[in-house]
Design goal:
The chain is an alpha/beta fold. It folds into 3 domains: 135 residues, Ferritin (Up-down Bundle), CATH 1.20.1260.30; 289 residues, Rossmann fold; 33 residues. Helices cover 45% and strands 12% of the residues. The chain has a 9-stranded mixed beta sheet with strand order 3-2-1-4-5-7-6-8-9, with helices on both faces. Strand 2, helix 12 and strand 3 form a beta-alpha-beta unit. The termini are far apart.
Amino acid sequence: MSVRTLVKSVQDIMRQDTGVDGDAQRISQLCWMFFLKIIDDQDQELELMRHDYRPPIPEPFRWRAWAADPEGITGDALLAFVNNELFPALKGLQPTGAEGDRRRVVRGVFEDAYNYMKSGHLMRQVVNKIAAVDFNDLAQRRHFGDIYEQLLNDLQSAGNAGEYYMPRAVTAFMVDRIDPRPGETLFDPACGTGGFLTCAIRHMRDRYVKRPHDGWMLENGLRVVEKKPLPHMLCVTNMLLHGIEDPCFVRHDNTLARPYVSWGQEDRVDVVLTNPPFGGREEDGMETNFPAQFRTRETADLFLALIVRLLKPGGRAAVVLPDGTLFGEGVKTRLKEHLMAECDLHTIVRLPNSVFRPYASIGTNLLFFEKGGPTEAIWFYEHRVPEGQKAYSMTKPIRFEHLQGCIDWWGGPERAGREETERAWKVTAEEVQARGYNLDIKNPHNVEEDHGDPDALLAGLAAAEAETADLRGRLRAVLAEALLR
């Protein structure tokens, strides 16, 4: 059975349970169950590899103890065990604080987890389905990325789905251009389910991890935060699936809740890769954590201000932002001026509105910048939907190869040799300043359709309206005469 089929069959079972209401609850329910199976499979492997290894979960609550036997505990007894013993035990785990202590990971996942199911018999059916997957089988683990595709597809009906979704092709493109390396500190202040994180891990493992020490440096440099319980749980589980033994760096918190001035030198990072939530509003008072010139309740603006502060000199970032940030005024203008003064905003890739469909239909942009010197010029690149296709969609999404044209144009690590093309153009910092820091700059190479002289068009419209009125009057007269006969 494929992973996608497995997930669907499990969700079909859950739909029969009166306690699980909607996709969001089904996904949350699925996630803590998969988490326990995944971490137990890893524990069994680690117990064989290390004689001194001790699993973080007490023996009675390990998956193998209560879930592995297909004819094991079920019905009311299973429900009572999960609600009255399993959850209290895992929520109450006490980490030692030692490095590598996975108890803090388990407790972090279960702090905001709930058992929504009310039928112990249906729960046993779900458990038996999940028990059939061996997460120590490398092939199954690799293909289990499909689970996240399926879950994210389902989230579109769970409300606020766009917060969690990021096209894999765009994520891979941004990581490829930023090129993170082991030994660098990588930060995503709003990581969602960990899309940038998993992509960066694969990128570094494929290109740079040659020795065990390289792998240690890779994991030691990861820093991510997610404030919502469900995507946080998905992110931690995603890390386990990607072979991260101790994903304690996935913090369940709100990055914006910390005062701006409290982020010191020790918090600086080499790389930021993020798709901050935009269109949202932070809770009252959150903006007071920021300097007066940056105060707003627009989430994306606050994240942009923080990212500029957190980058080390020479640090680089790739950030997804909406069109509104580019042309917005007020705080947005001050932010763009600050960004261009502190960083080299060297590239903006403009994406078509359909990239995020069906989750959202909004114009988005990829901003690439480096900390350390002011912006002298900005290169714009307009990505277009492939020929023969009107828009991206669920059935025809954006693919990495669609972005190859931009990669070929990019110009290597130093971006040398860039040239203006029908899709690329350059704007100086002085021109941007003269525009009031409005970065919503259209492609000058696009030839706008000539609609004619406005005065002539208006005169033609007036003549057409007069003719229509005359015809209407004549028709009315004919009808009136016919009625009199």
